């Protein structure tokens, strides 16, 4: 609260008193606290909702799992627990249609980050090789970080090299787990700058970092020699 005092020729604005400043600070702190409590009161669903999820995702999940033959109690629990119920249920329905155990299929679809890609992977490989053991195919697709790409790898090798599906599953999963861009660049030893220290302390440090190098200290300066010495930095 700021008071304005009227004088003869001008107005003088009086600074707020100490108790007024404390009152304003208290009101500000209370407002901030109420805002934080309002955010905490929001349901968890508001923070994990996805824009691509349909409004009737849980209804679709229940209908699809019931159609796939999942018991109602298990279906209800699964739909309530997963983040994307419509995707998990579609994955389960698509794969179980190929005579795969429905509970094993539901478990696999729940434990993968991309349920729809999992079903695509399994169905693509099955379309290429109808004799493939689908439970093994489903587990291999589930272990891949990119199931859709993994399925294309298995199918492509089968088509181009007549590679059997079990071998393709193993080959593609090994390749997908290979780390990339982790090797440091190589520089020839002669191009690596030497660490020539200053004074006796610098010479001692250089000798430690360059095993086998000969060091000499003269007049407070150091020089390190020894061509071909490995650089440890």
Task: Provide an overview of this structure.
With 233 residues, this protein is mainly alpha-helical. Among the domains are: 3-40, no CATH class; 57-176, no CATH class. Helices cover 57% and strands 8% of the residues. It has 11 helices and 4 strands, in the order ββαααααααααααββ. The protein has helices at residues 18-40, 45-48, 57-68, 72-81, 85-96, 102-110, 115-128, 134-143, 147-161, 165-176, 199-209; strands at 3-6, 11-14, 214-218, 221-225. The strands form 2 sheets. The chain has a two-stranded antiparallel sheet with strand order 1-2. α5 (85-96) packs antiparallel against α6 (102-110), α5 runs parallel beside α7 (115-128) and α9 crosses α10. The chain starts with a strand and ends in an 8-residue tail after the last strand. Mean pLDDT is 76; it is low at 42-49 and 215-233. Residues 210-233 are annotated as: Disordered. Residues 215-233 have a biased composition (Low complexity).
């Amino acid at each position: 609260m700021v008071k304005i005092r009227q004088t003869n020729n001008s107005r003088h604005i009086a600074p707020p008193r100490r108790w007024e400043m404390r009152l304003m600070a208290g009101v500000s702190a209370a407002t901030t606290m109420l805002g934080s409590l309002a955010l905490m009161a929001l349901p968890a669903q508001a923070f994990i909702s996805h824009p691509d999820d349909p409004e009737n995702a849980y209804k679709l999940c229940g209908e699809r799992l019931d159609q796939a033959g999942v018991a109602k109690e298990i279906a209800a629990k699964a739909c309530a627990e997963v983040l994307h119920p419509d995707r998990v249920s579609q994955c389960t329905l698509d794969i179980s249609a190929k005579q795969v155990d429905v509970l094993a299929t539901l478990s696999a679809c729940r434990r993968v980050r991309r349920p729809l890609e999992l079903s695509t992977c399994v169905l693509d490989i099955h379309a290429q090789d109808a004799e493939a053991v689908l439970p093994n195919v489903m587990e291999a697709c589930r272990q891949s970080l990119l199931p859709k790409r993994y399925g294309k790898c298995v199918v492509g090798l089968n088509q181009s090299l007549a590679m059997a599906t079990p071998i393709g599953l193993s080959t593609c999963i090994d390749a997908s787990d290979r780390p990339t861009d982790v090797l440091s660049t190589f520089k020839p030893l002669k191009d690596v700058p030497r660490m020539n220290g200053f004074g006796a302390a610098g010479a001692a440090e250089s000798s430690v970092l360059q095993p086998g190098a000969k060091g000499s200290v003269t007049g407070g300066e150091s020089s390190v020699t020894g061509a071909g010495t490995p650089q440890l930095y």
